[in-house]
Write a structure and sequence with these properties.
seven-stranded mixed sheet; about 35% helix; 33 strands; six-stranded parallel sheet; alpha/beta; disordered C terminus
C-alpha cells in the first residue's frame, strides 16, 4: 500500500471517528508521492494531491518542507509545469514557508544568473526574517563579490523593511466577551494535562479546550458577531495560572484568533485574553509569542466602608464589588492608540500595560519570534554594509536610578545583558535582551518545541547555550502506546539538535525519567545564570530561572537569547527559630500565609521575583522554596546563599553531572564536561574571593519586603484547594494555608510523595520513620495507599548505596521495574506503598490519577481542579499539599494526624538543616550615575 493511500485511510478514520480534517503533512516521503501525482495530469488523486501540497504541508525545516521548496524551485525554473501554480504563485508559497529549505531556494534564485527571477526572489527575501548563519554567510559573500542583488537585500535588511512595511495594528479593535471561568483560570482548563499526548496535533488538541459546551458558546458568539474577535476572560481571577503551556494559547488562538497563513493549517495567532487580575506572567509571554493581546481588566475592586476600610467576609477575605461588567456577550472596544477599554463611549479601564512599545511590535510582526530574528538580521546587515542600523524598533528600555543599588535579579540581568546602550547599571523596568545559559525541555511540551524549531528553520542549538536537557519525566508513569509513539521521536530530534537527552536514540545508555527541574538544578553551575525551561516549575535555586512556553524554549535553544523586562523583586527574610518537629515545607507554606497576612490579602509575589535569603540550605533543599514560587504566582525566584553553601551545591552538581557522563549521556560537543569546567571556575571565584556568592546590594530597592517569623510555625502547614468555598473564585488558588489541627479526624484516601517538590532528604525521612517504628515495635501498615516517586535515578542509586532504599523496598507492595514498565495507568489503589519510577507521576495528572472524589494529601504542587484527582457527582476531589512526614503518617492512619501523633512520629528525625542566616547577606551598594530611558 502506498503512503498516499495510507494517508487517505487515516483521513477517513480521522473524519469518521473524530470529525477532524486531514492531518498536516510533515514527512518527505509522503509529499514526494503527492508531487508525483501532481505531475501526472491524469492521476485520479491529482486534485486532492494539489490541495494537500498547497494548503496542508507544514513549513520550516520539516522534511516535507524540503520537498515542497525543491518542487517550487523546479516550477519557477520551468523544469516542471503545474498549470495551477504560476511562477508568481510559487514565489508566494515560498514566502509563507518561513525559512530553512525555502530560504535556500530563494537564495539560489536571487544569486542566480536569471535577472528576472533574481529580482522576484530578492523581493520575497526582503520579507523574510528566519535566516541563519549559513544563509547570511551566502549573502555576505555575494555582496563582497559585487552582487548587486545581494547588496539590495542587505540594504533592505539594514532598514528592517521586513518589519517597517508591515501594516500597523488597528487603532480600534471590537471584541465580544466570553467568561471562560470565575476565579483563576489554569492552563489545565485550556490544555488539559491528560490530553498532553495530542498537543502536536493542533486540531485534535483544540477539541479539549475548556468543554464542548464552551466551544459551542464561542462559536455562537462568532456567528452573532462575525466582525469581532471573542475575548476569553477570567472573571474575578487571573488568566493562565500554573503550567507554561504554548498549547493553551494555541488552543485559544485556534478558537478565537486569526489564521497565520492561508497555506499553513491549524496555526492561528493573535488571541485576545483578559483577567480581572490580569494574565499570569508565563502565559502573558506565550501570548506575546503569538502577537496576541492580554488585558488586566481590574473590573472587580475591594469594597470599602464609609471610613475607607476594606470590607471583609466571614473568612476574613476582602469583599469585591463590580466596577464594570464584562458578562458574556458584552461588546467592548480596545483603543490601541489611547490604550483604553471602552463600552460604547464609556471608558472602562486603562490598558496601557498591554500596549508597551515592545508588545505593539510583537502584534505588528505577528509574534515575538519575528521581532527577535528581525533585530538580529538587521544588525547583521548593517555590519556587513558598514552602516549604522536605522532606529526602527522601539529602543530598549534602559532605566538606571541614580544612587540605587541592585537586587539579585538586577545583577544577573546586568551580567547577561546583550546590546545595552547605557554605561550605568540597569534597574527593574528595563527591557533588554539577555544571554540564556541553561535551557530545559520536557516531554509533554517537547513535541511542540520541535515544531517551533522546525517552523523557525532552526537546525542546531546555539553555541551561546552552556547546556540544555530534554526530559522524559512528564510521561514517566506509564509506557503506553502514546508514550511509545511520541517519546522516541522527540528524543531523537532533540539529541540531533544538540541537547542532552533522557533517552538515547542509539540505545547506548538506559532510558531515564528524571524530573526535569532536578536535572536543570544540577546542571546549573553558576548562581548568576539565566535559565529558560518549558514548565512553570523551572525555578532553580542557583541563578534565576523562568518557566516558559514551548516557543520561548525553542527561541532560547535556537538563538541563545531571550528578551524580557527586568522584573521587580520582593525580598523574603526569616527570623526566629525552627522547631524540631517542623519540616522546611512548612516554612514554604507559612511564607505564603504570612505574606498575605502582612499585606492585607494582597499577593505581592504575583508577577515579581521572590528573592529569598535562605543562606544555609544546599540547592537540593532550597529548590523546595523556589519550586513553590510558581504557585505563589511569582515570575521567578532567587536563592541568596552563603559562600560555603554555594560551594557545597556546586560540588554536588559536579558529582551528578559526572554520573551523567559515566552513564554515557555526554554529546559530541562535550556539553557536560564543559559544565563541570564552568562549575570549577565558579568555585575558584568564590574561594578566592574575586566573585563571592551572589548577593543584592544593601541599598537595593524592592517592591516589598516580607519577614517570615519561624516562631509562629508550630504545626504542619497545609495548602488547601478549599473546594467548598462559597465564593468559587477563591477555590484552587494556593492562598488557603491551614494548620493540621484544622483537619482533625478528616479521612485521607491516598497519599503521594514525589514530583519536583521532594529531594533525597525526603526519601531518607520515610526510611527513618520506618526504622523508628520498627524500634518501637509498631506495626508498619497502610490504611490508605501511599505512592512514592523519587525525583531522579541518581537519588535512588544513592539511597541503595546508603541502605535507605532497602527499608523502603521492605514495606512496599509494588516496586517499579524499568525492564517491564507499566503499560496502562492505575484506576484503583490498594492500601500499600507503591515505589514508583522516578518522574512526575500523580502531580502531572496526564497518566496516573487518584480515584475520583478522593481526598489526597501530597507533597505535590498542584491544587488545580481535576489535576491529581477528578470530582464525582457526590464529592469534589481534594488535593491537599503538605510535608513528606505528614503525608506518610496520614496514609498509615487513614486520616490526618493530631499534632501529638505527628510529633511522636517525627521524634528524633532530623527534618531540615534550615536556619536563618545570622548576618545580613548583602554587599555595599552599586551606585547608578545617571537615568537613561530612551523609550
Amino acid at each position: 500500500m502506498s503512503l498516499y493511500l495510507e494517508y487517505i485511510a487515516e483521513i477517513e478514520s480521522r473524519k469518521k471517528e473524530l470529525g477532524l480534517a486531514p492531518k498536516p503533512i510533515d514527512g518527505a516521503e509522503l509529499l514526494a508521492e503527492i508531487i508525483e501525482q501532481i505531475k501526472d495530469e491524469g492521476n485520479e488523486y491529482r486534485a486532492d494531491s494539489l490541495n494537500f501540497f498547497i494548503y496542508n504541508t507544514l513549513p520550516g525545516t520539516t522534511s516535507a518542507a524540503g520537498e515542497k521548496a525543491a518542487f517550487l524551485k523546479k516550477i519557477i525554473l520551468g523544469e516542471a509545469s503545474v498549470p495551477e501554480i504560476s511562477t508568481e504563485f510559487a514565489f508566494e508559497l515560498l514566502s509563507h514557508m518561513k525559512g530553512g529549505p525555502s530560504i535556500e531556494v530563494l537564495l539560489d534564485l536571487a544569486l542566480g544568473d536569471d535577472t528576472g527571477l533574481a529580482t522576484q526572489a530578492s523581493d520575497v527575501l526582503k520579507t523574510q526574517v528566519f535566516l541563519y548563519e549559513a544563509d547570511t554567510a551566502r549573502l555576505d559573500a555575494a555582496f563582497k563579490a559585487g552582487n548587486s542583488i545581494a547588496k539590495g537585500i542587505l540594504e533592505s535588511y539594514a532598514k528592517a523593511e521586513f518589519f517597517t512595511k508591515l501594516p500597523d495594528i488597528a487603532e480600534k479593535i471590537d471584541v465580544v466577551s466570553y467568561i471562560a471561568g470565575e476565579g483563576d483560570i489554569s492552563t489545565d482548563l485550556l490544555s488539559p494535562g491528560h490530553q498532553s499526548h495530542s498537543r502536536a496535533d493542533r486540531e485534535l488538541h483544540g477539541q479539549c479546550m475548556s468543554s464542548p459546551e464552551a466551544q459551542a458558546e464561542i462559536k455562537a458568539l462568532q456567528v452573532q458577531h462575525p466582525d469581532m474577535q471573542v475575548m476569553l476572560i477570567a472573571e474575578k481571577g487571573t488568566m493562565g495560572v500554573g503550567s507554561s503551556r504554548m498549547s493553551g494559547v494555541n488552543n485559544v488562538a485556534l478558537w478565537t484568533g486569526k489564521k497565520a497563513s492561508p497555506y499553513v493549517p491549524f496555526i492561528n495567532i493573535a488571541p485576545i485574553v483578559a483577567g480581572t487580575n490580569g494574565i499570569a506572567p508565563i502565559f502573558l509571554t506565550t501570548v506575546d509569542v503569538t502577537g496576541g493581546i492580554g488585558l488586566d481588566l481590574k473590573n472587580w475592586v475591594k469594597k470599602v466602608d464609609a471610613s475607607g476600610n476594606t470590607v471583609v467576609d466571614k473568612n476574613g477575605d476582602a469583599v469585591l464589588e463590580e466596577a464594570y461588567s464584562v458578562a458574556t456577550g458584552t461588546v467592548l472596544t480596545i483603543d490601541t492608540k489611547a490604550k483604553k477599554l471602552y463600552n460604547g463611549n464609556e471608558e472602562l479601564s486603562d490598558i496601557s500595560s498591554a500596549f508597551t512599545p515592545q508588545k505593539v511590535e510583537f502584534m505588528k510582526a505577528g509574534g515575538s519570534y519575528a521581532v527577535t530574528f528581525g533585530k538580529k538580521l538587521q544588525t547583521f546587515a548593517a555590519e556587513a554594509l558598514g552602516v549604522e542600523p536605522l532606529n526602527v524598533y522601539a529602543a530598549a528600555k534602559e532605566i538606571s536610578n541614580e544612587g540605587q543599588g541592585l537586587t539579585a535579579v538586577e545583577k544577573i540581568f546586568n551580567r547577561n545583558a546583550v546590546g545595552v546602550l547605557s554605561d550605568s547599571p540597569l534597574h527593574a523596568g528595563s527591557n533588554v535582551r539577555v544571554k540564556v545559559n541553561i535551557v530545559g525541555s520536557q516531554d509533554t511540551t517537547g513535541p511542540m518545541t520541535c515544531q517551533e524549531l522546525e517552523a523557525m528553520a532552526a537546525s542546531t542549538i546555539s553555541p551561546l547555550v552552556d547546556g540544555a536537557f530534554q526530559s522524559g519525566c512528564h510521561t514517566a508513569s506509564v509506557w503506553d502506546s502514546k508514550a511509545k509513539a511520541n517519546t522516541p521521536k522527540l528524543m531523537s530530534f532533540m539529541n540531533a539538535f544538540g541537547l542532552i537527552t533522557a533517552r538515547d536514540p542509539k540505545g547506548v545508555y538506559p532510558a531515564m525519567t528524571d524530573v526535569i527541574h532536578k536535572v536543570l538544578n544540577d546542571i546549573t553551575v553558576d548562581d548568576r545564570a539565566i535559565i529558560i525551561g518549558g514548565d512553570s516549575h523551572t525555578r532553580m535555586s542557583k541563578g534565576v530561572a523562568f518557566g516558559a512556553d514551548s516557543g520561548t524554549v525553542a527561541i532560547a535553544l535556537a538563538t541563545g537569547e531571550s528578551a524580557m523586562p527586568i522584573p521587580e523583586s520582593v525580598k523574603v527574610t526569616f527570623k526566629g527559630h525552627m522547631k524540631k518537629h517542623m519540616d522546611f515545607r512548612d516554612v514554604v507554606h507559612s511564607t505564603q500565609a504570612q505574606m498575605l497576612k502582612q499585606f492585607g490579602g494582597e499577593n505581592v509575589f504575583q508577577g515579581r521575583v521572590i528573592e529569598v535569603h535562605i543562606g544555609t540550605l544546599l540547592a537540593d533543599q532550597a529548590f523546595t522554596f523556589t519550586d513553590w514560587s510558581a504557585e505563589m504566582k511569582a515570575k521567578a525566584s532567587i536563592c541568596i546563599s552563603q559562600d560555603e553553601t554555594l560551594i557545597g551545591s556546586l560540588e554536588l552538581a559536579k558529582s551528578r553531572i559526572q554520573i551523567m557522563i559515566d552513564k554515557g549521556m555526554e554529546n559530541p560537543a562535550k556539553t557536560l564536561h564543559g559544565l563541570i569546567a564552568l562549575a570549577d571556575k565558579r568555585i575558584d571565584e568564590v574561594k578566592s574571593g574575586t566573585t563571592p556568592a551572589l548577593t543584592p546590594d544593601a541599598n537595593a530597592s524592592y517592591f516589598a519586603e516580607v519577614v517570615v517569623d519561624l516562631d509562629l510555625i508550630d504545626e504542619p502547614m497545609i495548602a488547601d484547594p478549599d473546594v467548598n468555598n462559597d465564593d468559587v473564585s477563591k477555590r484552587y488558588t494556593h492562598d488557603v494555608i491551614r494548620p493540621v489541627s484544622y483537619y482533625s479526624d478528616k479521612p485521607v484516601d491516598l497519599g503521594f510523595v514525589g514530583s519536583c517538590m521532594v529531594h533525597k532528604g525526603d526519601m531518607q525521612i520515610i526510611a527513618q520513620m520506618f526504622r523508628n517504628m520498627e524500634a518501637q515495635g509498631t506495626k508498619i501498615e497502610f490504611k490508605a495507599p501511599l505512592v512514592v516517586a523519587p525525583p531522579t535515578y541518581n537519588i535512588v542509586d544513592e539511597l541503595k548505596a546508603e541502605g535507605d532504599w532497602a527499608i523502603l523496598e521492605k514495606y512496599s507492595g509494588f516496586e517499579f521495574d524499568d525492564a517491564n514498565p507499566k503499560a496502562s495507568a492505575r484506576t484503583k489503589y490498594e492500601n500499600i506503598m507503591y515505589l514508583e519510577r522516578p518522574g512526575c507521576n500523580l502531580c502531572m495528572g496526564n497518566q496516573e490519577k487518584a480515584e475520583p472524589g478522593d481526598t489526597v494529601i501530597a507533597t505535590s504542587t498542584r491544587l488545580f481542579q481535576g489535576r491529581v484527582v477528578a470530582d464525582t457527582a457526590e464529592k469534589k476531589g481534594e488535593s491537599l499539599l503538605g510535608s513528606t512526614p505528614l503525608v506518610v503518617l496520614s496514609t498509615m492512619l487513614g486520616r490526618f494526624p493530631t499534632i501529638e501523633e505527628y510529633k511522636a512520629a517525627v521524634a528524633g528525625i532530623h527534618l531540615t538543616d534550615f536556619a536563618p542566616p545570622v548576618e545580613s547577606m548583602t554587599t555595599p551598594g552599586t551606585f547608578a550615575v545617571k537615568i537613561a530611558d530612551p523609550s
